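Hey, quick one: can you model this chain's 3D structure?
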Amino acid sequence: MSLIDLMFKRRSTRKFRDEDISKDDLDLILHSALLAPTSMNRKPCNFMVVERKETLKELSECKDMGAGLIAGANKVIVVIADSMVADTWIEDSSIALTYMHLMATELDIGSCWVQTHLRSKDGKDSEEVVRDILKIDSHYRIVGMLALGYSDDIPQAHDESDLDKSKIHFLV
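Sure thing. Here's the predicted structure for all 172 residues.
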C-alpha cells in the first residue's frame, strides 16, 4: 500500500474487540514511534504501554469527555516527553503519535488518539491526572495517548471528495 493510500485509510475508531494485539505488531507500532523525527534529534519522548484493565479504566476517566473509549482498548500507549530535554515536546509527541496511528492502520489495528494536553477532569489538568495514575515525574509532559485494539467499527477510508482543497493556497 502506498503512503497516500494508508493516509486515506487511517481513521479513528472508538470500539474495540476483546482480542490481544500480538507482540510483533506492538513492536512495529513502537518502532514507528522511535523512527519519528524530533527537533534537533533530541528524542524527548518515551512510550508507556498500558495493558492492565484496571489502569485502562482509570485512564479512561482522565478527562471530562473523550477518554471513555480507553476502557475498551486492548492497549494504550501514553506518550510522555521530557520537557527538560526539548521545548518542542508538543510537536515531537504529536509526530510520534501520528507515526503510531499510521502503523496501526497498516497492521489493520484500530486506533484513536486521546488528547490530554489542555484538557481537564473536574477542573484538574488531565496531564496531572495521568501523571498521578502512572506515577510520572512532573517534568514529563503528556500530549496524548493512543488507544489500540482490533475493531469491526473502523469507518470507511476517506476518498478524494473528503479533501477540502480550498484550504490550499498558492502564493505567487
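One thing worth noting: The beta strands are 45-50, 75-82, 110-115, 120-121, 124-125, 140-149.
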